[in-house]
Amino acid sequence: MRVTFLGTGCPVPSPHRFGPSQVVRHGDTAILIDCGSGVTQRLAAAGLSGADLDAVLLTHLHSDHVMDVFQLILSSWHQGRQRPQKIFGPPGTKVYVDGLMALWRAEMDQRIAHERRPSTSALETEVTEFGPGWVGRFGEMEVSAVQVDHRPVVHAYGFALTACGRRLVVSGDTRPCEGLVEAARGADVLVHEVVARGGMPVVEGVRTAETVANVESYHTRSDQVGAVAAEAGVGCLVLTHVTPPGTDRAALLEEVGKHYGGPVVVAEDLATIDVERMRVTFASGGVVALGRH
C-alpha cells in the first residue's frame, strides 16, 4: 500500500504545495482522497490519470478539498475513462456533485455533441454518502470512515485503510480528537494535517487576531500533532495540509519532535510513502527509510 501526496497545501495558493489530495494504491487499485486544486496535473506528474481511479473519497466539503471535482471528471473523460466516477463522501456530497454537474451541463452537452468521443460514461457519477464506520472494500484495501472534529463543519471524516496487514490512517481536517486517536492506535502510518503555531500573523486587511484564532481552533497545531501521534502509538507521522504552505520544515520538525519520538515526515507534493516497506520517495529522487513498525 502506497500513498502519493498530490497536494500538501491549504487554501493559500502556493506553487510548491497544491490543494489537499492524496492517492492510495495497492496492486491495481487506486483511491483518490480529496480533490484539491491542481489534482489532475499532479496525477499526471505521478504517472496516473482520472481514468485509473477506482474511487474518490472526500473527507468533507470544504472548498479546498473538493475544488477540482469537476476538472477530474472532465479530464477523466478526455483520458478515455469508460466508467462513471465513483465518489464517496459525507452527507451533502450528492447535492454538491449533482449541482456541480448541472452547472456545467450546457458546456458538457456542447462538448459531447461536437467532439464525438466513443463514450460518455466518464461524465456520469455514482455518489455514495457515508457515516462513521465501514465505507467499502476496494481491491484488497478496506476503508472505514472516522468521524473527526472540524466544527463548525458538521460532517468531517478521516479514513483508516488496511491492506495485507498494514494500516494507514488519514486525518482529514480536524482539531485533536479522541476518535481519531483511537482509530489510529498502532497504525503503521498516520497522515495528519498541521497548522504551524504562530505561522499566520495578523495582517491588516487580510486577517485579524480573531481570524487567526478561529482558523487554528478547528485544525491541529504543530504543538499538538506530535502528542496525537504519541498517544496513538503510530509507527510514523506524516504531516500534510501544511498551513501556511511556506512553513519552515526544520522548525516544524523540532516542535513536533518535542511530543513524538518516532519518524516524522513533512510531506511534499509528489512524495510517496510505501507503507509496507516504510520508505518515503521524494519527487527529486531521494529515498528515506523510516524503520520498521
TrEMBL record:
Record Pfam families? Anti-Pycsar_Apyc1 (PF23023)
Q: Which domain of life is it from?
A: Eukaryota
Which GO molecular function entries does the Swiss-Prot or TrEMBL record give?
3'-tRNA processing endoribonuclease activity
Instruction: Determine if Hydrolase is one of this entry's keywords.
Output: yes
Hydrolase found in the keyword field? yes
Tell me the InterPro entries matching this sequence.
Answer: AtsA-like_MBL-fold, Metallo-B-lactamas, RibonucZ/Hydroxyglut_hydro
The UniProt entry, under SMART domains, shows: Lactamase_B
State the UniProt keywords alphabetically.
Hydrolase
- What residue stretches are annotated with the Metallo-beta-lactamase domain? 18-199
The cross-references to PANTHER family, in alphabetical order and at most eight, read: ZINC PHOSPHODIESTERASE ELAC PROTEIN 1
Q: What is this protein called?
A: Metallo-beta-lactamase domain-containing protein
Question: Which species is the source of this protein?
Answer: Ostreobium quekettii
